[in-house]
Amino acid sequence: MRLVISPLLLPYLIIVSASKQNALLNIIVAVIFVLLAITDFLDGFFARRYQLSTALGALLDPLADKFLLCAVLVALVATQKIWFLWALIFLLREFIVMGVRSMALECGFSVPVSWAGKIKTVAQYSYLTIVLLNTGNHNYIRHIDMVESVLLCFSVIITIVSGYWYCASFINQLKKGKQ
Fold first, then answer.
1. What is the pLDDT, as a whole number, of residue 50?
2. Is the predicted pLDDT of residue 155 greater than 90, yes or no?
3. pLDDT tens digits, 14-71
4. How far from chain centre, in Å, is Cα 85?
5. CA distance 3 to 39
6. DSSP states along 139-166
7. Interval 85-123: pLDDT, tens
8. Distances (CA, A) of 147 to 9, 12, 32, 123, 141
9. What's phi and psi for 18, nearest 5 deg?
10. Which of 112, 120, 131, 151 has its CA 20 to 30 A from that of 85?
């Protein structure tokens, strides 16, 4: 579901809602985004809980996560709701970590998912939800700009920290393997 809705429907809805500046439309788009984000959590939860993990699921789940994040970021940059540098930081981290994990597999080991990576996902999704809700008309949510700024700062910091953690973990495991 995320693989189809994320790159096709969600960017269109974001662009339409940005052009209309309609609070209800923004809420609908934000709810769709949150539901897609929740499916990310539920996929992993049910797969682990009921031992339903498959090779295809292990391949498609991270891809669906990247599609969701990339589609939302590109649409928000296109509508000038976020600065391209923030999107670039978020996306660079995703592709660097994907590369690090691929190199680790080539070397015969894996880099486990970290607490920082999980916090990063929650922080980014929270930030993007607030951005989607923000119409610029502050009659329906007070102080939304401040909340958005705080979430942005935290998201950028945890994105960089978690990216560093994955790279450091890879290098440490690589050094252990060469000893």
1. 86
2. yes
3. 888 887 778 888 899 999 999 999 988 888 788 778 887 777 776 677 888 889 999 9
4. 15
5. 11
6. TSSTTHHHHHHHHHHHHHHHHHHHHHHH
7. 999 999 999 999 999 999 999 999 988 888 999 999 999
8. 27, 25, 20, 12, 10
9. -65, -35
10. 112
Hey, what are 11's tokens?
């960017």
Cβ 177 vs Cβ 107: under 8 Å:
yes
Task: Give residue-wise pLDDT tens across range 120-151.
Answer: 999 999 999 999 998 877 666 678 889 999 99
Instruction: Tell me the domains of the chain and their CATH numbers.
Output: 2-178 (1.20.120.1760)
Could you please report the per-residue DSSP string of the chain?
-HHHHHHHHHHHHHHHHHHHT-HHHHHHHHHHHHHHHHHHHHHHHHHHHTT---HHHHHHHHHHHHHHHHHHHHHHHHTTSS-HHHHHHHHHHHHHHHHHHHHHHHTT------HHHHHHHHHHHHHHHHHHH--S-TTSSTTHHHHHHHHHHHHHHHHHHHHHHHHHHHHHHHHHHH-
Residues 159, 89: contact at Cβ < 8 Å? yes
Q: Which pair of structure tokens corresponds to residue 48?
A: 């682990």
- 104 residue type, one letter: A
Six token digits for residue 128: 């993007």
**What per-residue confidence (pLDDT) applies to 71?**
92
CB 129 within 8 A of CB 30: yes
Task: Retrieve residue 136's tokens.
Answer: 């610029």
